[in-house]
Write a structure and sequence with these properties.
Elements (H helix, E strand, L loop, with lengths): L14 H43 L24
Length: 81
């Protein structure tokens, strides 16, 4: 695996620019770590949702309501008055 060459301190003769460059590098590392963490969380949520969809697909063909919105019962309901 090739390693990327990191530039040395490009602003060694300019203390203010060197401080800013160091700050940029530190922020870049923090952002990278945050992005990796967000990626992990998103992948977990995607997997969870995909599992939920698979479970719900089992019931997709089963009808619970008629076109007029009335519940459909698997067995006829008898009402005694």
């Amino acid at each position: 695996m090739m390693q990327k060459k990191r530039p040395g301190v490009p602003y060694s003769r300019h203390p203010e620019l060197a401080r800013r460059w160091s700050s940029i590098q530190n922020h870049t590392v923090k952002l990278r770590d945050t992005n990796l963490h967000n990626d992990m969380l998103l992948n977990h949520q995607i997997n969870h949702k995909e599992h939920a969809v698979q479970v719900l697909k089992l019931y997709q063909a089963q009808k619970f309501y008629s076109p007029d919105g009335q519940p459909i019962h698997s067995a006829p309901v008898s009402r005694k008055a």
